[in-house]
Amino acid sequence: MDLRTGFAAVLESLAPGLPLDDARWQALAPLLRLQRLATGEAVLLQGQQPQAFYAVVQGEIEARFSGLDGQVSVLETMRPPRLFGLAGFVCRQPSRYEAVALRPSVLIAIGPAAYTRLMDELPGFARALMQEFAGRFAGTLGLLAASRHATAAERLLLGLQQLDQERGEPLPGEPGWRRLRVSQAELAALANVSRQTVNEWLGQQAREGRLRQAYRCILWRPPAPGAGAAAPFTGS
């Protein structure tokens, strides 16, 4: 994975067609840094102010939060081409989570000079970045509202739909089905339910033919808009 190929994939995920021509790349490349992480190595530390934000271009990064009681909660598992760390970096505030490599990974570090050049000189980048994080914020607000008014099944379905929008991919040879790489711990944290509830709900959905569980992923058929949370579910 070379720097330009990795960064081009990140831009393509934000907004296809952003004009990263040779002249712009030659000015930007010295300001970016390719960073390799071994399994278990951290790139963000909870409580420290980020000096850059990052794009995952290879591997898998886990965002997790440690409470005062020492309990660790998984917030998200991030795979290419995912951006993270922008809020703390832009607001100049300590990170609220740590980011740790689950396997050997490659990141692109985007520091102050690169951020300024991208925002000021790459047409369409600022608008694409705003759209990306507005979408994440809207998803978070939806889950917050659901945590107060929705059942566990509705929150789990909403969480799956949000994750599917971010990282889901079509399942070859099976029209209407999608592959979504997600752990039960991540889904539990997102929907604010227990791991046991996630396991029970996934089992029910599998029995009803709405999804299949595979190694480190879920194969599922998203419901039509307005279909709701399907069959009634009573979980822990």
From TrEMBL:
Xref: PROSITE patterns: CNMP_BINDING_3
CDD domains named among the record's database cross-references: CAP_ED
SUPFAM superfamilies found in the cross-reference section: cAMP-binding domain-like, Winged helix' DNA-binding domain
Pfam families from the UniProt entry: cNMP_binding (PF00027)
SMART domains associated with the record: cNMP (SM00100)
Gene3D superfamilies on file: Jelly Rolls
Domain Cyclic nucleotide-binding intervals: 20-136
Official protein name in the record: Crp/Fnr family transcriptional regulator
